[in-house]
Design brief:
30% helix, globular, HST_MetA, 10 helices
């Protein structure tokens, strides 16, 4: 698909090497098409890696997407060059008057903190509230999923005795929702987290639907407002080597790091990862863009409410 990205974004060249069709703004403006506007609030430490992971998944649709990146004014990232942030990211205050067809909010390495103790929590609350009236459909990932459920629905999170780390079987609720169109009975999702949300809290909330879960990793995907919100506790967007990089990074600094489960071939970290989630990840994002963004958003984007 023609993805419209900021000129010179590093992800453009990386994805072209994978034969994924992307275009920069200079080419996209020559097409007489109303692109879908997607904004990504990227809270992950390695911004360029996350940008590439998400853009790769968003590329699997024939629709033209205009991708923007948002940053927080109340937080300065330590692992991404300031030049990159200044060139490709805008503060929330700069886009507060705009409307977007879709929004993605990533995870963040703050899950062990209470929400109110996160230094940028007040700004996150403002963004969450803004999304309700300025975005057609929003995907919340990992910590953002927990934070969004807490802010919008009062759902608490709970610490885990042991890190949920690896690839886990997931089952849909069997309702044949468009978000799962084309899915098999079982799909797989990477998880890397120290906290969880619980089934009983989701079921008690009348505004939420638990649409996918796992006997091992628990709540997987929650839907709110008929698909205007999706809360994903894992990381469908992860590249094949992401968990491997995390495992080796942590193992070099601590001696209590468990190997990610169901990840390496023959459960041997000397072997490469066995990728079991990529097809459903692409399908999930394509279904979201098609059925919950494109099919639902008004042609006049200013009519989003």
């Amino acid at each position: 698909m023609p993805l419209r990205l900021p000129d010179k974004l590093p992800a453009i060249e990386l994805l072209k090497r994978e034969n994924i069709f992307v275009m920069d703004n200079s080419r996209a403006i020559s097409q007489d098409i109303r692109p879908l506007k997607i904004v990504i609030l990227n809270l992950m430490p390695l911004k360029i890696t996350t940008e590439t992971d998400l853009v790769r998944l968003l590329s699997n649709t024939p629709l033209q997407l205009d991708i923007s990146f948002m940053k927080l004014r109340s937080h300065t990232p330590k692992n991404t060059p300031i030049e990159h942030m200044m060139m490709f990211y805008r503060d929330f205050e700069e886009i507060i008057d705009e409307k977007f067809d879709g929004m993605i909010v990533t995870g963040a390495p703050v899950e062990t903190y209470e929400y109110e103790d996160v230094t940028y929590w007040n700004e996150m609350k403002a963004i969450f509230a803004w999304a309700r009236s300025h975005v057609t459909s929003t995907l919340y990932i990992c910590w953002a999923a927990q934070a969004g459920l807490y802010f919008h629905y009062g759902i608490p999170k709970y610490p885990l005795k042991k890190k949920m780390f690896g690839i886990f079987r997931q089952y849909t609720d069997g309702s044949h929702l468009p978000i799962f169109r084309g899915f098999d009975d079982v799909f797989y999702m990477p998880h890397s987290r120290h906290t969880e949300i619980r089934r009983e809290d989701i079921i008690r909330s009348p505004g939420l639907s638990l649409i996918a879960e796992s006997p091992e990793s628990g709540v997987s995907i929650v839907m709110g407002r008929g698909g205007r919100e999706f809360f994903i506790t894992g990381h469908l967007e992860y590249a094949p080597d992401t968990l491997d990089n995390e495992y080796r990074r942590d193992r070099d600094t601590r001696d209590d790091v468990d190997m990610p489960v169901n990840y390496y071939r023959d459960d041997n970290p000397l072997n490469p990862p066995l990728v079991t989630w990529r097809a459903h990840a692409n399908l999930f994002y394509s279904n979201w863009i098609n059925y919950y963004v494109y099919q639902e958003t008004p042609y006049d984007i200013n009519q989003i409410k």
